[in-house]
Design brief:
Number of domains of chain B: 1
Order of helices and strands of chain C: HHHHHHHHHHHHHH
Number of domains of chain C: 1
Strand content of chain B: 15-25%
CATH architecture of chain B: 3-Layer(aba) Sandwich
CATH topology of chain C: ABC transporter involved in vitamin B12 uptake, BtuC
CATH architecture of chain C: Orthogonal Bundle
Oligomer: heterotrimer
Number of strands of chain C: 0
Number of strands of chain B: 10
Helix content of chain C: over 70%
Strand content of chain C: under 5%
Distance between the termini of chain C: 59 Å
Number of helices of chain C: 14
Shape of chain C: globular
Order of helices and strands of chain B: EEEHEEEHHHHEHEHEEHHH
CATH class of chain B: Alpha Beta
Chain lengths: 397, 268, 318
């Protein structure tokens, strides 16, 4: 068993398995990299509209294929159809957003449901056709990774690589409009055109992923990895690298698991792997993760309460709120009788002195004092040189 | 030497010399969104029938302070009381004028509808807005000179007119404290005049106005008192007392030229 | 078409379509105004894992446990989206995208792993719904509609939708004022002492109920469309919230009837006896109506405005 796992994950489990694995990894990386831009542009769900808008295209391409005398199941042909209506969907979303009073999310919802409804009408028509090999079309809804052929996997890998290359080449432009559309426009960039190009790349990833993971789960591949990467970094370059890596990792795990276990649909497992990465990032990423953030928050709350306690005690009052009272007690500043202890008196004097010195420093050098925020708990001696502190001391007495 | 016994904190300073409870008292208010504090240990007290400007540079936490007072943003620490009670129990006595940019002006509502929203607290749950409520909404619109625009969709009003609709809505709440978040931002001269008149009007009826304000030049003309903020409270009190070079320097630092600060301090 | 066929096959389907469309359409007004239009989309997708889980827990394909499962899944999804949005400080759209795709994937894995797919639960059914097989068999003549038995033997989906639609209409009427102010200005609403968060949670729960009640009959795609298109259409036509609600209900009902007829009888126009997907067609009709409103609405239509501008320019010139 372990050997199987190893074999699959290291591409040594036969041609077919390796091809599928390579395909989904390429797709994962592509989705992760491209997805960063719509995510940062706060338009992540536009991929939802795009992917649903491909359905009528697939159906139309199938009908056209039959009309031309074929079986209608040529993958390239179907993808072209998907890309065509997907592009119309993008244009429709942009048009509704820019020319009517309806906001973007309504535009996305309109396009995704109406296009998909149209696709369903067409599919219901196809179902009644005698020549219907339509079973193949249904696989676009949920994907059929295992049925990926070598050629198709190659197509995915190449298309992914091309899309990634373009995305990296235009990283600066995409990043700039995501950060500040107005500024980018003032620089003389055609924001609408840059946006459209970004969406075309997104459409490319969606179209090539349809066969492998299906039109609902492909959305996940362009949303979840960037969302996970966001928790780790604030820098665009790093975020793209991480997002691509997360997507690739999800593809690798998902593809591997589905090859090893029966009845494990690859598309769904890839998405679940991505979701696991997301959950881990949400919880534990150092800069924006929930757990480290909560710890910092608790620490700040305690620091605020402690300072507050010390300063009110300096005025001769009991700490104002229960938390501050408890901290004062717990730190040994007050005794069981509610009186200030010797240690408490010292701490109060020290807090008072710190406050006085910082106040003096802020008064004299307001701008230099700005970066030292009170929650960071710096002692003034640790930050400023001894002679400045001494000068402040003499000024503030 | 035995250290002194600490006095319980409950007793003090909410009541003034006459025993009246301050409309608003804020102690030790600390708010932090992330690691940077938006407000740090802010104390001040506002007395009745006062027109108070809250001033400070961008990012000084002025709006945050208003939101924290209303309980719209979580606080790390602090004790906020209105008329001696937690704000939660004094809601009916507080009216709020949010920043104009905080809502969607394309919303399907007329000026009158928006003003009537100020009455929702009085109307109560599940009861419809009746004709007399609409009448009252119209009266309040009239007070700000907007009676002719009552049935106009709010998106078709100018910025100043929108601000006046917000003001009328606050008036409809018939509160004792009015908290206004930058009502003067981007409005025309007529609206500015109207806002000042309304503020003086409510003051003469015994109410208190706390107003986030940006224009240092007009603070002395429009307001009685000021709270100067820059994360911390720099100063609070009558405008003439707090508008000193020292305080303004502490709040604005390098953001205002020394000469400017001196001119403002002198004018106040 | 004879009366019996119409009454037992078409009438119940039309009624179900109208009610499903109206209940979702009414709620959609608030979703569209709150920039939450896509929550319907998210909720409809997570119904799949809910249904599969309902099947696994109850062991039957009886409707009630499956619908309960969908309900629970919808509420869990709404909670997760809100949590991720708040604690992860992610944009609402991204939070939605993460949650609904991940839960949909869970549904598919469950489906495949447990063999539930053999038990007539399939993802496609959930997408397309089952409008055409809603039958009111006791009706054979119009006069039967006046009998009590007819209503006792009413198709269950229809009965459910009648209850849900009425409940939604009543809730909106009763809480109109609160929904309006929390939608327009949550800051003011909170300062008035209204429980803003509770109201928006309640709205999402009602949306989930409406989605699940409708979705069994008409499929998730129609549910998504009805949360958006009628409200968006009405939004183009009026600046009064009350009027917008009425208009959206009207648009939803017209789409339901029109779409059903187009799907059932449209193909006969080109001599095909096979009906098309009614749910899909209703969606398309709703989309066409919205498109028309976006272009031609009296005040806000794109064409109307362009013509108004042109006229103004000509007036100026002359």
């Amino acid at each position: 068993m372990i050997i199987d796992v190893f074999a699959v994950l290291t591409f040594c489990a036969g041609y077919n398995t390796s091809v599928v694995l390579a395909g989904v990894i390429a797709l994962g990386i592509g989705g992760g990299v491209i997805g960063v831009f719509p995510f940062l542009r706060k338009r992540a769900l536009i991929s939802d509209a795009i992917s649903h808008a491909t359905l009528p295209g697939i159906a139309l391409a199938f009908l056209a294929g039959i009309a031309l005398g074929g079986t209608g199941r040529n993958l390239g042909f179907l993808m072209a159809g998907a890309a065509l209506t997907g592009a119309i969907g993008i244009i429709a979303v942009q048009w509704i957003r820019d020319h009517t009073r309806l906001p973007e999310d309504t535009a996305i919802g309109t396009v995704l449901s109406v296009f998909f409804g149209l696709g369903i009408v067409l599919l219901s028509h196809i179902q009644t056709l005698e020549s219907a090999g339509q079973a193949g079309l249904n696989s676009f809804l949920l994907g059929s990774t295992a049925a990926l052929t070598g050629g198709e996997a190659q197509l995915i890998a190449i298309a992914s690589a091309v899309a990634i290359t373009f995305a990296l080449a235009f990283m600066k432009e995409f990043g700039a409009i995501a950060f500040d559309e107005g500024f980018a426009a003032a620089q003389g960039w055609r924001v609408a055109r840059v946006d459209l190009f970004m969406l075309v790349l997104l459409l490319a990833i969606v179209a090539i992923g349809l066969k492998a993971v299906g039109l609902i789960l492909i959305i996940a591949l362009v949303i979840i990895p960037p969302a996970a990467a966001r928790f780790w970094t604030d820098r665009l370059g790093r975020m793209i690298a991480l997002s691509g890596a997360f997507g690739g990792l999800a593809g690798w795990i998902g593809g591997g698991v589905s090859a090893l276990f029966p009845a494990m649909p690859a598309g769904a497992v890839i998405v679940l792997a991505a979701a696991a990465i997301f959950t881990f990032s949400l919880l534990f990423a150092p800069s924006r993760g929930v757990v480290p953030w909560s710890f910092r928050r608790i620490r700040m709350r305690l620091a605020a309460a402690e300072t507050r306690a010390l300063l009110t005690m300096a005025g001769g009052y009991q700490p104002p709120d229960p938390l501050a009272r408890r901290i004062a007690r717990w730190r040994g500043f007050t005794g069981p009788d509610g009186r200030l202890t010797a240690a408490g008196a010292a701490a109060v004097a020290d807090a008072h002195r710190q406050q006085r010195l910082w106040q003096a420093y802020r008064q004299q050098h307001p701008d230099a004092a700005l970066p030292f925020n009170p929650l960071s708990g710096f002692r003034i001696e640790d930050v400023l040189s001894a002679d400045i502190v001494a000068a402040l001391e003499s000024d503030s007495v | 030497m035995n250290p002194p016994r600490l006095i319980p904190f409950e007793a003090p300073p909410n009541a003034n010399a006459h025993g009246a409870l301050a409309p608003l008292s804020v102690r030790g208010l600390t708010v932090a969104y992330d690691e940077k504090p938006a407000l740090w240990d802010v104390d001040f007290e506002i007395s009745q029938q006062d027109l108070v400007a809250v001033i400070g540079p961008n990012g000084a936490g002025k709006s945050t302070m208003i939101k924290a007072v209303l309980g719209l943003t979580p606080t790390l620490a602090g004790n906020i009381r209105a008329f001696g009670k937690p704000v939660k129990h004094a809601r009916k006595r507080i009216a709020y004028v949010p920043q104009r940019t905080s809502v969607d002006w394309d919303f399907p509502a007329s000026a009158e509808d928006v003003v009537a929203m100020g009455l929702y607290g009085k109307i109560g749950w599940c009861r419809p807005v009746r004709r007399r409520h609409r009448g009252s909404a119209r009266e309040h619109l009239d007070r700000v000179g907007m009676a002719d625009f009552a049935s106009r969709q709010i998106g078709q009003l100018s910025g100043g007119q929108q601000q006046r609709v917000f003001l009328a809505r606050a008036l409809a709440q018939e509160a004792d404290i009015y908290l206004m978040d930058e009502p003067f931002a981007g409005v025309d001269a007529a609206t500015e005049r109207a806002i000042v008149d309304v503020m003086r009007d409510v003051r003469s009826n015994g109410a208190t106005v706390v107003c986030v304000h940006h224009d240092l030049q007009t603070v002395g003309d429009y307001f009685d008192s000021a709270v100067i903020l820059n994360i911390r409270r720099i100063a609070a009190g009558p405008v003439t007392d707090v508008f000193t070079e020292e305080n303004l320097q502490a709040a604005y630092g390098g953001r205002l030229a020394k000469t400017e600060i001196r001119a403002i301090a002198d004018s106040a | 078409m004879n009366a019996t066929d119409f009454l037992s096959i078409d009438l119940p389907a039309i009624l179900v379509a109208i009610l499903a469309a109206t209940s979702c359409g009414l709620l959609g007004n608030f979703l569209v105004l709150r920039r939450q239009a896509l929550i319907g989309d998210a909720i409809s997708h997570v119904a799949l894992p809910g249904i599969v889980a309902g099947f696994l827990v109850s062991g039957t394909i009886a409707t009630l446990p499956l619908m309960l499962g969908a309900m629970v899944a919808a509420i869990i999804a709404a909670g997760l989206i809100e949590t991720i949005r708040r604690v992860g400080r992610l944009e609402a759209g991204a939070a939605m995208g993460v949650v609904f795709t991940a839960m949909f994937a869970v549904g598919i894995v469950l489906l495949e792993q447990t063999g539930a797919s053999n038990a007539h639960i399939d993802a496609e059914h959930a997408l397309y719904g089952n409008l055409e097989s809603t039958l009111w068999l006791v009706l054979s003549a119009w006069s039967d509609l006046l009998t009590v038995e007819a209503y006792i033997e009413m198709p269950r989906q229809l009965a459910t939708l009648i209850v849900v639609t009425c409940a939604i209409a009543v809730l909106i009427a009763v809480f109109f004022k609160e929904l309006k102010v929390t939608t327009f200005d949550p800051g003011l609403a909170a300062s008035l002492g209204l429980p803003v968060r509770t109201i928006s949670t309640a709205l999402i729960v009602v949306v989930a109920i409406a989605a699940v009640a409708a979705f069994e009959a008409v499929g998730s795609i129609l549910v998504i469309a009805m949360f958006i298109c009628p409200a968006a259409t009405a939004r183009m036509l009026t600046d009064n919230l009350g009027r917008q609600l009425w208009l959206s209900a009207g648009v939803a009902a017209i789409a339901g009837v029109g779409g059903y007829f187009a799907a059932a009888f449209g193909p006969q126009l080109w001599g095909s006896a096979n009906a098309l997907s009614a749910a899909g067609m209703i969606t398309v009709v709703a989309g066409v109506m919205q498109g028309f409103a976006m272009l031609m609405a009296p005040r806000y239509g794109v064409v109307t405005r362009a013509m108004g501008n042109r006229k103004r320019r000509l007036d100026l010139a002359s």
